[in-house]
Amino acid sequence: MIESPLLPHLGGYINGEWTAADSGRTLAVTNPVDNGHLADVASMGEAETVRAIQAAEAAFENSADLAQRREWLSAIADAIANHREEIGRILCLEHGKPLAEAQGEADYAAGFFRYAAREIDALGPRTLEERPRHCTWTVHHRPAGVVGLITPWNFPIGMIAKKLSSAIAADCPSVIKPSSKTPLTMIALFTLLDREVDLPPGKVNLVMGSAGPITQALFDAPSVRVISFTGSTEVGQTLIRQAAPGVKRLTLELGGNAPYIVFDDADLDHAADQLMGNKFRGGGQTCVCANRIFVHEAVADDFAERLARRVADLKVGDGMADGTTLGPLIDENAVAKVARHVDDALGKGAREVYRGDASGLPGTFYPPTVLLNVTEDAACYREETFGPLVPVITFSDDDQVIRMANDTDFGLACYVFTGNEARGLAAIERLRFGHAALNTGSGPTPEAPFGGMKQSGYGREGGLEGLFEFTEAQTVPVG
Ligand code: NAP
Predict the structure, then answer these.
(1) Which helix (H) or strand (E) holds 234?
(2) Contact of 45 with 213, CB cutoff 8 Å
(3) Which protein residue has the closest C-alpha to ligand 1 atom 39?
(4) Which of 13, 43, 142, 279 would you label with 423, given CA atoms 20 to 30 Å apart?
């Protein structure tokens, strides 16, 4: 069992009160490092969600000015920063990622609130310089309404920070549903909101439990105008269908299949170093992590060897233990998927360059693995592996690798490494990915918009673009 000062309650949070499920039912949360039981949290459904929406509707009646919202955002950033160690510990225990990384995620989350507080004036009204039709024209950025925020397990605080910072900046009350696999970090955040931030009741509400009934209640309520979802493309597709009757606006941050392209003129050590940080963060369970590593055939063997030496230095184990750099995967299904991708690629002619050792570890581990000469018909070429597999695919020229990189339904992140910046930028112009990095494996940051193309979704989080996600422009000509 987990004990934490940030987890005095294990219920939802509706209208400023901690609440158990009406049915009394609970949901077990486990630690993937050993499948140990951590806690039982309230398992809610439609009725609790309807009450949360009603509380949010009431909160929507009282608007807050930009100065007040800025104060709330700064207070949330401070609360997260001041409790980064404990948030990180809870996150490490329920997710499995190494403690330092989990605490880094808390810093990343605080950054979104800090950024929104700094830039909130962008949401103020804008009066046009021109006077068309003999009127003064002003554009107001009104709050869209109540918003539903649905988050995945792979960044238990990072993903809600992206959404909630923009919702508070826009003055939209929210109903939040975390992943059933990692609700404890969200409860810890709500403990801080309850104790350390002076938000009015109903401004933020937490419901946990069955995704289907909770989501349906959000779609059924006329007051809910935007649903912001981060998760798999499969679920995103069902949400698009559900959004039609109520014409709800959706922000969808969905799956990826990121290409990582290493040209023959790249600094191979730098590309390998960057790949380590990019690929193994969160155990390889991030939407932006490299899924297909394209390396020019002239340097592929050399690159794979350099990479294998680095992968051999990973310390696989309990995220709470000193020095661990690779934790467990989230569950048995995740392990089975990586195993299927490795076996499939080997069966289709790939060569194993390196495979680590995770034997003897009790939880849901898969050893880090590097494969060379992976083919275009391999499952890992098409599907997001979401685990510590590095499949290296070779190419012979720029046109070929750009065709291969774009040969996917996804368009979230891509990475290009070359010693020739003009060559890299020319490649990026032709790559259909929302986040396109040159000579860095860096993922998103609060200050810049992030989001996908194609089936990786639509809408942006972070940056000025993200700040407008929960607003409606209202144009007011005054004659
Ligand atoms: P998921 O299975 O789609 O779940 C995401 C959230 O949706 C969870 O809260 C889940 O609740 C809920 N959910 C499940 N089924 C639902 C349904 N039918 N209707 C409404 N909500 C439903 O995704 P995941 O496994 O947690 O996350 C991994 C995926 O997220 C990967 O594909 C990854 O690439 C993607 N991702 C994308 C981004 C991005 O920025 N684009 C960032 C992170 C992750 P329960 O847990 O209760 O089932």
Answers:
(1) helix 233-243
(2) yes
(3) 253
(4) 279
pLDDT score at 187: 99
> Taking the complete model, does pTM exceed 0.85, yes or no?
yes
Q: What angle do CA 174, 123, 176 make, to 5 degrees?
A: 10
Residues 184 and 7: beta-carbon distance below 8 Å: yes
> Whole-angstrom Cα distance, residue 72 to residue 79?
10
Catalytic annotation, pick one of 92, 287, 289, 380: 287
User: Is 287 in the active site?
Assistant: yes
Please give the distance of CA 168 from its chain centroid, rounded to a whole number.
Answer: 18
Position 270 confidence tier, pLDDT thresholds 50, 70, 90: very high
- Look over the chain and give the mean of its residue pLDDT values, rounded to a whole number: 98
Same domain, 161 and 280: no
Whether residues 246 and 358 share a domain: the answer is no
Structural domain boundaries, residue 146: 12-254+456-478
Mean pLDDT, residues 239-261: 98
Active-site residue identified among 48, 86, 101, 253 = 253
Q: Where are the alpha helices (DSSP H) in 120-230?
A: 158-170, 183-196, 211-220
**Mean pLDDT across the stretch 286-313?**
98
The per-residue pLDDT for 107 is 98
For the CA of 242, the nearest atom of ligand 1: 19
Mutate to test the pocket of ligand 1, among 27, 94, 175, 235 (most ligand atoms within 8 A of CB): 235
Predicted confidence at residue 202, as pLDDT, reads 98
In this structure, is residue 2 part of a structural domain?
A: no
